[in-house]
Design goal:
About 45% of the residues lie in helices and about 15% in strands. The chain has about 475 residues and is of the alpha/beta class. The chain has a six-stranded parallel sheet with strand order 3-2-1-4-5-6, sandwiched between helices. The protein binds nicotinamide-adenine-dinucleotide.
């Protein structure tokens, strides 16, 4: 089927490339001319595992094209709107990019078009779109408007898009439902060449859930707000653990064994960031408020999250006493691992606050440094975590990249001025770090110094927490270089 995707960001690019991968003829448009020209010449404007390969395959097979939104609108039988919906100052979602695409569709499209909102939008945006199109379109345009919220996660977006748990569509007509079912058929049946797994395991077919448009819109905001609530909940449990001397990792492990709770999103730390949770929680609060419902629970979720960075800084202050002139190595800038995205990343607030208190920051992130430079120009960026740690009074871990589980701790110990690690993601093993001679401070777990080693015997594991990983080739090379110096 001929499909159009408007907006080549994390969601749009993944959607376009994956729909081409499963056999559709896709046109992806982008209004940022620099980004568009990169895509047209085969250069990636963002980092996302596997995406470059999927895009290359699509372009070589001539079923993935990039161009202007005008051309995109005339191309597809279905148009997926994947533009950004950032927060306004009052927390509401800014829908101006959606409105501008709708205006262009009304002006330029003719024949039948299925217009699909994939961007995360407040409930009733579909209804607004329908009203807008009714007022502005010509008689030659016939259309349906559907909601198809996207649940992919940055860092695993290709895998998530091709192997989803559920596909939700909100429609008001049988025709729209059937078209979307046909578009997603290869994914529903899991019949396509998988670019992620060499020997793709037999996956469970996703649930294809058909709802009305408003309910589909609400499913997205409610899901993200619920997950954010889980994170803020465990963060408060972590604070309580610190107050009473318990270990949040053990508490989370015990909670997660209950299938009604589950272990996911029970890892405390510096708080949630990125282009989804912070803005979606804010938007959901505003939607509820405008509809006369006081969702005060979510205001607390947001408030707890906003205080996480300050709480971590407090730990740094407690250890370093005077911040001015202290050298701090910041490991990780992206809002989560396996992405280069720093939008609403906790690292930004953290680094700005540390700089303001006079600390000297040396930062390292495997993928996000280019994007970070635009928002955090006043720090030294380093080529690897060892360089960042040189002469440091403290290492602060902000993003749980696997690379930080593969460190040669003896080497790190020899480089720093003071062997202090403040782990904002609880990603390392207390035992391993203290054995290596570090004073190790994490979130909701006991702080342990080397002379207390052996006293903290029980270590719970939630997800990959505390797991030490073998070196990959690139890291072997970095290590070899560093050891020679
Ligand atoms: N990033 C995620 O993990 C994620 C996951 C699920 C849902 N979402 C939602 O998806 C939407 C997009 O998110 P994103 O992270 O991809 O944003 P993004 O900012 O990375 O991408 C949006 C792109 O749309 C382009 N654009 C804006 N107006 C345009 C127009 N008129 N024509 C063509 N291109 C246009 C922008 O230049 C930008 O490149 C948001 O509503 C977001 O909440 C994001």
């Amino acid at each position: 089927m001929k499909l159009s995707v408007i907006g080549a960001g994390y969601v749009g690019l993944t959607t376009a490339a994956c729909l081409a991968q499963v056999g559709h003829d896709v046109f992806c448009s982008e209004s940022d001319l620099e980004k568009l020209s990169k895509l047209q010449s085969g250069v990636m404007p963002l980092f996302e595992p596997h995406l470059e390969k999927v895009i290359r395959t699509g372009r070589e097979a001539s079923n993935l094209h990039f161009g202007s939104t005008e051309d995109g609108i005339s191309w597809g039988d279905a148009i997926f709107i994947c533009v950004g919906t950032p927060p306004l100052a009052n927390g509401e979602a800014d829908l101006s990019a959606i409105e501008s695409v709708a205006r262009m569709i009304a002006k330029r499209a003719s024949g039948y078009k299925l217009i699909v909102e994939k961007s995360t939008v407040p409930v009733q945006t579909g209804a607004q779109l329908r009203r807008h199109l009714a007022v502005h379109s010509t008689d030659s345009l016939h259309y349906d408007v559907a909601s198809n919220p996207e649940f992919l996660r940055e860092g695993t977006s290709v895998d998530d898009f091709l192997h989803p748990d559920r596909i939700v569509i909100g429609v008001e007509s049988e025709r729209a439902a059937e078209l979307l079912r046909a578009i997603y058929k290869p994914i529903i049946e899991q019949k396509f060449t998988c670019p992620v797994h060499n020997d793709c395991p037999k996956r469970q077919e996703p649930t294809f859930l058909v709802t009305d448009t408003g309910s589909a819109e609400l499913i997205k905001h409610a899901s993200n707000s619920f997950l954010a609530m889980k994170i803020s909940f465990i963060n408060m449990v972590a604070d309580l653990c610190e107050a009473v001397g318990a270990d949040v990792a053990q508490v989370a492990e015990g909670m997660g064994l209950d299938p009604r709770i589950g272990p996911a999103f029970l890892n405390p730390g510096i708080g949630f960031g990125g282009f989804c949770f912070p803005k979606d929680v804010q938007a959901f609060i505003r939607i509820a408020q405008k509809s006369g419902c006081d969702f005060s629970l979510l205001r607390e979720v947001e408030k707890i999250n906003q205080l996480r960075v300050e709480r971590l800084i407090e730990k740094v202050r407690n250890e370093l006493w005077v911040m001015r002139g202290k050298k701090i190595a910041v490991w990780g800038l992206a809002f989560k691992p396996n992405t280069d995205d720093v939008r609403f990343a906790p690292s930004i607030a953290l680094v700005k606050a540390l700089l303001q208190e006079g600390a000297i920051i040396k930062a390292y992130d495997p993928k996000a440094m280019e994007k970070a430079k635009a928002v955090l120009p006043d720090l030294e960026y380093c080529s690897d975590p060892y360089q960042a740690s040189h002469g440091a009074d403290a290492i602060v871990i902000v993003t749980e990249w696997d690379e930080f589980r593969r460190m040669d701790w003896t080497l790190v110990r020899s480089l720093v001025d003071r062997p202090l690690i403040i782990d904002g993601r609880n990603m390392l093993s207390i035992a391993q770090l203290t054995e290596s001679g570090f004073h190790y401070v994490s979130v909701g777990r006991p702080s342990v110094s080397p002379n207390e080693r052996g006293q903290h015997r029980v270590e719970a594991k939630v997800g990959a927490q505390g797991e030490s990983l073998p070196l990959d080739d690139a890291q072997e090379q970095v290590l070899a270089r560093r050891r020679k110096k």
